[in-house]
Amino acid sequence: MSDEASKTSTNISQLDQAAILLMSLGEKEAAEILKHLGPKEVQRIGTAMTALENVPQDHVEEVMSNFLDEARLSTGLGVGSDGYIRNMLVEALGEDKAGSLVDRILLGGNTSGLDTLKWMDPRSVADIIRNEHPQIQAIVMAYIDGDQAAEVLTNLPEKVRLDVVMRVAALDAVQPSALQELNDILEKQFSGNAGSQSKDMGGTKVAAEIMNNLESSIESELMESIKEADEDLGNTIQDLMFVFDNLKAVDARGIQTLLREVSSDMLILALKAADEELKEKIFGNMSKRAAELLRDDLEASGPAKLSDVEGAQKEILIIARRMADAGEIVLGGGGEEML
Fold it and tell me: Are residues 226 and 157 in the same domain?
């Protein structure tokens, strides 16, 4: 990246731009916006806001300018109609994430039932389901996001982890009665009503996503146990897992798009355990000057704990999967399927 480019807002991630915008709006206005976002979005933006410090005035001005440019392209016509709001949220968050939020806004409901768990600390979720039947635990794990589910799994007893992950992988559709049972346990009414149709959730892809977000030592041990119990299932889950080395399969545009969302410090740390092929893939999708600077910084950086390196790689993979969910990049998993 050239020196000139580094001075523009293109060097500021979309997440940081959102954080700068909200900080600029003021506490009351920011709160009004945040209450319309889902738990994952609030957590990510909140973390970015707390990390802001000494933001240059020109960055603030550019972020505000970009926002105004986007706003000028919009129209107030139709605002207030259910269709407009629903389409806007689906466009912003995706069909799955927007679903419960649409119900809360359009139907006037409150966050309840399973949705409540998404706002809770993983340790608290683990405490709630610790003494429940493994099938109930699996339904919870399949419903919440993969990274949160991984932390919940880590906080459950080691002896139940294998059973829960295999049950998640075996899930296909959950009957309303099962969802109602879970809501009874939570002592809350299910958000949006269970209805008469079963809900698709779980499966090997969900199990793979949970495994992706586990600490490497736990993931390796659990994968070995899964293969011992069911080798075919273990291989299927492993094929669907997206690991750092799989970034080699992402096309040039995807890598370039991803790099705009990753900080230099995180990238340097993550590349410490990468092979030369992946490093060259990264270097080859940067400007010559930026690649040279990254090489120098990588060589000059001191040793790092393996856990820190793996943590940085997982952070980048979380960003990559989020961007893939938004349709910004395409990820190729360990197997032939695309995530």
Answer: yes
Say yes or no: 27 and 119 in one domain: no
Q: What is the pLDDT of residues 186-231, one digit of tens each?
A: 654 333 344 434 456 678 888 888 887 787 778 888 988 998 988 8
> Considering its fold, how many domains does the chain have in total?
3
| Domain-located, residue 90 | no
Residue identified by tokens 């139907």 is 107
> Has residue 79 been placed in a domain?
no
Span 21-80, pLDDT tens digits: 877 776 677 767 777 776 667 777 777 777 777 777 778 778 877 776 666 565 444 444
Q: Last residue of a domain, which of 209, 240, 271?
A: 240
Q: What is the pLDDT of residues 234-247, one digit of tens each?
A: 888 887 787 788 88
- 248 and 220 assigned to the same domain: no
The residue range of the domain holding 33 is: 3-72
pTM above 0.90, yes or no: no
Question: How far is Cα 225 from Cα 229, in angstroms, rounded to an integer?
Answer: 6
Residue where a domain terminates, one of 42, 72, 102: 72
Report the CATH number that the domain containing residue 194 is assigned in CATH. 1.10.220.30
Residue for token pair 């949220």: 89
Contacts of 304 (CB under 8 A, 6+ apart): 269, 272
Task: Give the pLDDT confidence of 290-328 residue by residue, as tens digits.
Answer: 999 999 999 998 888 888 888 888 889 888 878 887 888
